[in-house]
Amino acid sequence: MPPEHNTPATPSTAPDTAVAARESGHPTNDTDPATGAAPVDGEAVLRDWEGLPPEARILVPAFATPMRLPDRTWAMLVLAVDIVGDTEPDRAGEVELFAGSWVPEQPPAEGLYDGDLVVRLTDPADPASPLPREDVIDVEMLLAYQGRWQRVGQWSGVDEQWPRVVAPTAAAVMGLHSDATEALARRDATPPPMKPMLRWARGGIGELLDAGLVTAGDELVWNRRNLGVRHTARVRADGTLVLADGRVYANPSGATTALGGNHQNGWSAFRRISDGRTLGELRTELRARHGR
User: Fold this and answer.
1) Mean pLDDT over all residues of the chain?
2) Closest CA to 67 of 156, 153, 135
3) Per-residue pLDDT, 260
4) CB count in 10 Å sphere of residue 264
5) Rounded CA gap, 8 and 105, in Å?
6) How far apart are CA 243 and CA 221, in angstroms?
């Protein structure tokens, strides 16, 4: 039983339509040749390019790899993982993107947080490591599932390449959880169609609806500059999201995974069009209201 733990130019975009092929590689951190200005913040450029929130830390491609948790930080929330697939045989299995954001306090492992995946960095337990102690780290991966933070991976004495080591497991766990959540939600949906399917979305946004932080009909957007795509979704009264093509998802992460071809935390990806706030910011507000 797993233990419990308390500037490249912006391409024109069209809703849910790829209007430009994905460019090879990522935006670079170059000096402006016209002005001779100092290099821009390459990590910030890549965040914007990939459609990630401002607080995201890009671990692959690496800008600076953390080897310990910052003070007053509980874990790093996994935001995005992209593993090259079989469509590129020469690069299959390569980690192309791995990103996360720091979580100051341990949130509840239920309701709105179900399906969140985090990594925790701790001092190495093995004193016999051949590398200096400050150059290695123990990594623990936890999933919020069925009301508990459950361990789904553990690595001991890994070096600064730890993000590339743990990323494939993160992608697999995020994909499996999204698939399972959507399957259970559809199984539990109550017919007939005229009867409201109130809050059938496991780990969905029903609690935000109950609190008045979102309303049925709210429009959401996920801008992905790297693909020249603008995905849209709408909140339904039953706590689900309906995409522009009519597909319905119980959880924001299920929607982003289906849309993205990689694994994304949908709470950080989707923004409400009316005010630009992410679903993650709204659930943080709800948690603050409840004093949790």
Assistant:
1) 81
2) 135
3) 73
4) 31
5) 35
6) 10
